[in-house]
Design a protein that fits this description.
seven-stranded mixed β-sheet, 33% helix, alpha/beta, globular, 206 residues, Rossmann fold
C-alpha cells in the first residue's frame, strides 16, 4: 500500500480503504481460483495494482466516461482504475466465467457502484465505449480486430482523446509496425521500481 500512496497521494479515505482491502480479497479468492500469479505474493501491489494504475498516468477519465476492460482476468486493470475514478463507469469482460465470478465478488466486497462484469468474448459485444483498456491479453493486431467499432468518437471523456490504453511489455517495434500513430509511454518514467523498466502503456487515439 505504501507504493500506492507514494504515487497517488491524493486518495480519499474511502479509496485508501478499498485499495487496502484488495490484497486480502485476492489472497482469499486466488486460493480457490487461480486468477493472478501465486508467485511472489509480496509484490501484489506493485505488479497488479500499481501496474494497472499506470494507465492513469497517461489518461485521467472524466466523470461519466465509459471504459471497457477486455480480458480482465481477475479484474485488472479495471478494478484499480474503478477505485481511482469512482465517477467513471467500467465494464469488465472475460471469456472465462470463473474469473468474472471473482470480479463480481471483489466488486461487491468493495462496494464499487461503477463496475459491471460480463462473461463474453470481446468481439461479441455490441456496445461502444469511450476508452478500452487491457493488460497484455494478446498481440496488438489481434486485439485491434476484437475492438473494431467499439470506440465511441466525438465525446470528450478523458484527458486524452478517446481510444485504447494497452499495458504491454518488451520490444514492441514489430508488433506495432502497422500502427505508426501509436504512442508508447515507458512506465519507468512514472515509477522507479525495477519491475517497470520494460513496461509500457500503448495509446491509440480514435
Amino acid at each position: 500500500m505504501d507504493l500506492i500512496h507514494r504515487y497517488f497521494p491524493q486518495l480519499t479515505e474511502k479509496q485508501k480503504e478499498q485499495f487496502a482491502a484488495l490484497e486480502g480479497l485476492y489472497a482469499e479468492w486466488n486460493a480457490q481460483i487461480n486468477v493472478i500469479s501465486r508467485k511472489e505474493p509480496e509484490h501484489f501491489y506493485e505488479r497488479h495494482v500499481l501496474h494497472s494504475l499506470a494507465i492513469a498516468k497517461v489518461c485521467r477519465f472524466n466523470p461519466g466516461a465509459e471504459v471497457l476492460d477486455i480480458g480482465t482476468g481477475g479484474g485488472f486493470p479495471g478494478i484499480p482504475l474503478a477505485i481511482l475514478f469512482p465517477d467513471a463507469q467500467f465494464h469488465l469482460v472475460d471469456s472465462i466465467g470463473k474469473k468474472i465470478k471473482v470480479v463480481e465478488e471483489v466488486v461487491q466486497a468493495l462496494g464499487l457502484k461503477n463496475v459491471s462484469a460480463e462473461q463474453i468474448r470481446a468481439e461479441k459485444l455490441n456496445r461502444s465505449f469511450d476508452f478500452i483498456v487491457s493488460r497484455a491479453v494478446t498481440q496488438m493486431p489481434r486485439f485491434m480486430s476484437w475492438t473494431r467499432n467499439r470506440i465511441r468518437r466525438g465525446r470528450e471523456a478523458g484527458s486524452v482523446a478517446n481510444g485504447i490504453l494497452y499495458l504491454k511489455g518488451g520490444d514492441l517495434k514489430e508488433e506495432l509496425a502497422d500502427f505508426p500513430k501509436a504512442k508508447i509511454y515507458a512506465l519507468a518514467k512514472f515509477f522507479e521500481e525495477d519491475f517497470f523498466e520494460t513496461k509500457k502503456v500503448v495509446y491509440l487515439k480514435f
